[in-house]
Amino acid sequence: MEAKFCQSCGMPMTETAHFGTEHNGVKSNDYCGYCYKNGAFTSDVTMEQMVDICLEYLDEFNKDSEHKFTKEEARAGMLEFFPTLKRWNS
Question: Which of 19, 37, 49, 66 is the one with CA 20 to 30 A from 6?
């Protein structure tokens, strides 16, 4: 399966279980299950709040990364990347 990225949090969706669901139970092609269930976002947050939520998982991300990001580096990268995602692009 080709890796897709959640269009809300940027998480790589590499397994079927990662994908969120639409109202009818069909897997969403755009959003992960953490961000989107039953055709709706799981939380009503701003892009900046989503960045803060994602930063809570930085240690987990850094475990599998060659470059260990600081919180400041990760925040700057997400603030640059997130506006390109579908949820935040409007």
Answer: 66
- Closest C-alpha among 3, 1, 4, 34 to residue 20: 34
CB 58 within 8 A of CB 68: no
pLDDT digits (tens, 9 = 90+) for 47-89: 999 999 999 999 999 998 899 999 999 999 999 999 999 999 9
- One DSSP character per residue, 42-76 reads SS---HHHHHHHHHTTHHHHHHT-SS---HHHHHH
Quick: pLDDT tens for 17-55.
999 999 999 999 999 999 999 999 999 999 999 999 999
